Amino acid sequence: MDSQLVVGIDVGGQTSKLGVVDARGTVLAQTVIRTDTYSEVEPYIAELAEAVKKVIKEADAEGKVRGIGVGAPNGNYYTGTIENAPNLPWGHSGVVEFAKLLSEAMDGLPVALTNDANAAAVGEMTYGAARGMKNFIMITLGTGVGSGIVINGEVVYGHDGFAGELGHTAAVRNNGRQCNCGKTGCLEAYASAMGVARTAREWLELTDEPSVLRNLDSIASKDVYDAAKEGDKLALKIFDFTGKILGRSFADFIAFSAPEAIVLFGGLARAKEFLLAPMEEAMNANLLPLWKGKVKIVFSQLKESDAAILGASALAWEL
Amino acid sequence: MDSQLVVGIDVGGQTSKLGVVDARGTVLAQTVIRTDTYSEVEPYIAELAEAVKKVIKEADAEGKVRGIGVGAPNGNYYTGTIENAPNLPWGHSGVVEFAKLLSEAMDGLPVALTNDANAAAVGEMTYGAARGMKNFIMITLGTGVGSGIVINGEVVYGHDGFAGELGHTAAVRNNGRQCNCGKTGCLEAYASAMGVARTAREWLELTDEPSVLRNLDSIASKDVYDAAKEGDKLALKIFDFTGKILGRSFADFIAFSAPEAIVLFGGLARAKEFLLAPMEEAMNANLLPLWKGKVKIVFSQLKESDAAILGASALAWEL
């Protein structure tokens, strides 16, 4: 066969990462362009297509690429469009026909598109921790909380293409925190990098507990992680709380699709040492007896610098 | 074709209903046997097989039956077994190889088995309100709350065959009611027939509000329904509360699989006139903007006396 390679593109709010990937998940060549300097989609697509052609050349892959996979916020697999993505300057209002535009700019090369968390799920299934699994739930713990649900080996897109918004299920029903989505109490408002920083700021204000975090002007989740590593008690409690919030939500997700595993990925998942125990404890405490102790929590095995490209690229194998 | 009919069997805690069904969903002949008078499965299966042969004869369907579908509590589609079903005297501990035993007793006729809520989902998709739908969630509001999830036209069974236990997701996270499953705060503890009666008893004790329900010695959900029909304010508030609890849980279910509709069935669903408005309101209030106003709540269209048999029988078309 002469078409044994794919291209993966991860469209982020600030930058877009792209690369040429082989069937084993090796990134042969990659590059990055800006996403946020374009207010219109056309010039962005033009530069993206140029960059794709460049990495294809660099990987010596001309004529060998069978398709392009794209992971993008609010990406719709059915239509290949990006719809009202708040963090994309050229995509925050209305519907952008992303897959069509990119395919045209790439002389008809087929393009598949989905949201970043679904792409991560396909990536993990193709190259990573979920290889061989037919039923799992991918949870991405980044700035927000994303999810990609796999049932019988296939990503769930639902009736409209937008299934898998588990970051916006209710973690707290009463007096929950305001979420960016407009609702309150969403899992994302507690269990994301943003949520961890919010918990820290809230608890510093509401308690007198001593903590190295009190010395900082502003707090990011990374600061809480660093403090926890030094044994700071408040920071450790914050991760314990975060893990428990996640674990009890996982129990509800498991009642839905009875997966073999929950697979975690993203910046916050690096705090595995502090999150795993409270997560497993709360999950098992809230599971029906039939699932107690039977559902694994596993962490992504993809190299973090490559993961976004790999996830997106994996989509293209299905084209 | 000479095999244009199927048999449906609904195994309930007290009785088992069975019937011969054609492709249009007409029940050609049916009967009922006891479930609860057998402490061992073998004599129960023997009587069941006799009854099946009798209805086949009655429907003039000898040689025309292509298979048997069974809906049973804790039924596992993958294995054809009933596992630890608390309400079945011959099945409450251990694993009963139901499909295998019945098939043997029926001279090798193929038997498919799943839990009652999944059977209801297949029935609704084959003959009822979900005809033509590829993505919906069936919620059965009976003594408990069951669910059957359909994605891309297929029931979700999950890794182990037990997916779709939405009655045991968290409706209330703190100080929730004790559920029969051993957990607290489950949707089933609030939004089932049992839950409605519990709400009534709780509110009668905690408030002074006048209500015709105060005159009763014991309260079942039917009493609350009758009182609501008479305009009893407390009874109306109970249904309003129940509808809201359901609606906000539906919002979380929708975030999972983005269905076209939630389909409701069961005794409590008869209170549609009191449940629908608060249900829709709470559901839409808790949905992400992209789904607000877009997901239907529909009620079963199957004749209630036939529904259990129809649901189970529909499974057999897939054999």
Describe the structure.
The structure is a homodimer of 319-residue chains. Chain A has 319 residues and is of the alpha/beta class. Chain A folds into two domains: 5-123 and 305-316, Nucleotidyltransferase, domain 5; 133-300, ATPase, nucleotide binding domain (Nucleotidyltransferase, domain 5, 2-Layer Sandwich). Helices cover 37% and strands 20% of the residues of chain A. The first copy, chain A, is built from nine helices and 13 strands. Chain A has helices at residues 41-58, 98-105, 116-127, 188-191, 193-206, 221-229, 233-257, 272-285, 304-316, and strands at residues 5-11, 15-22, 27-34, 65-71, 75-76, 81-83, 95-96, 111-114, 136-141, 145-151, 154-155, 261-265, 296-299. In chain A, the strands form three sheets. Chain A has a five-stranded mixed beta sheet, sandwiched between helices. In chain A, strands 11-10-9-12-13 form a five-stranded mixed beta sheet, with helices on both faces. The first copy, chain A, has a three-stranded antiparallel beta sheet with strand order 5-6-7. The longest helix of chain A has 25 residues, at 233-257. The model of chain A has no long low-confidence stretch (mean pLDDT 95). Chains A and B meet through helix 7 of A and helix 7 of B.
